[in-house]
Amino acid sequence: MKTAIVTDSTAYIPKEIRDQLNIHMVPLSVVIGNDTYQEEIDINTTEFYDKIRKGGALPKTSQPALGTFIETYEKLAKENDSVISIHLSSGISGTLAGAEQAGEMVANLDVRTFDTEISCMVQGFYVLKAAEMAEQGASPDAILQELNNMKQTMRAYFMVDNLDHLHRGGRLTGFERVIGSVLQVKPILHFENKVIVPFEKVRTRKKAMKRISDMLQEDSNKFNIKATIIHANYENEAIAWKEELQATMPNVDFTISYFGPVIGTHLGEGSMGLGWYKIN
């Protein structure tokens, strides 16, 4: 039984890795002014932040069209028996629902969906594990069981540098934005019940990043970990943070990723995140 792995662009898995592991990607889109861009295809992260830095209306985001999923699954049905379609949290996007609907419309293909209840490279961790298992011939049931096991220790926290994006996107009141800016509050966010909610409000960027890294340190004292540092167009800071954390957490395997156009629309440039899970 041959199983294909599908995800969406918000996992932000580099193309060379997707190609190497035979991962199929369906893009979400950002709308900037009158122009629509498929992320990871029509626009890269640097280009996106350059465009929004110029001001104007906040970009809008849109999930993949149902037809895109159907077309993807129909192609895969020619050489595969099943598909595991792994997507960003159903609490912040209708992408998973679209994947489920499309899966019911394609004949001769067993489509299983998996709600990561999160996004970005933390979502990507699930995708990479699924792809590795599929390459080894694991069954859909075995793969989904492992993904659910991973979910038990998966954690991720995000520090928002500029409150304007959350405010303009309707996720923060004007009063909170003004008070936050005056007090240099850097909200730490996380996913809870599939949606993004505040975890803590911390004064200053430095303290917020330390608070997140302290939580990773706590877990790394208990078990081996795979972690990703996620940045919104702040690569140099991400590299420096990685070097700092590696010096004190030798049992953590770090990678660096990024907040691409779709997620960056809601968090804004300068945001930083850290996600991790327990490994054997």
Essential attributes:
11 helices, 13 strands, 4-stranded parallel beta sheet, globular, 6-stranded mixed beta sheet, alpha/beta, 280 residues, 27% strand
Describe the model.
The chain is α/β, with parallel strands linked by helices. It has 11 helices and 13 strands. It has helices at 15-21, 45-53, 66-77, 95-105, 120-135, 140-151, 164-168, 174-183, 205-220, 235-248, 261-267; strands at 3-8, 23-26, 29-32, 35-38, 60-62, 82-87, 110-115, 155-159, 185-192, 195-203, 225-231, 252-258, 272-278. The protein has a 6-stranded mixed beta sheet, with helices on both faces. A 4-stranded parallel beta sheet has the order 2-1-6-7, with helices on both faces. Strands 4-3-5 form a 3-stranded antiparallel beta sheet, with helices on one face. The longest helix is centred in the middle third of the chain and has 16 residues, at 120-135.
| Beginning-to-end CA distance, first to last residue | 27 Å
Poorly predicted regions are none
Instruction: Please report which band the strand proportion falls in: under 5%, 5-15%, 15-25%, 25-35%, 35-45% or over 45%.
Output: 25-35%
Order of helices and strands: EHEEEHEHEHEHHEHHEEHEHEHE
Shape: globular
What percent of the residues sit in helical stretches (DSSP H or I)?
A: 40-55%
Radius of gyration, in angstroms, nearest whole number: 19 Å
Number of helices: 11
Which whole number gives the mean pLDDT? 91
Largest sheet, strands/sense/barrel:
6 strands, mixed
Q: Specify the structural class.
A: alpha/beta
Arrangement of strands in the largest sheet: 10-9-8-13-11-12
Q: In total, how many beta strands?
A: 13
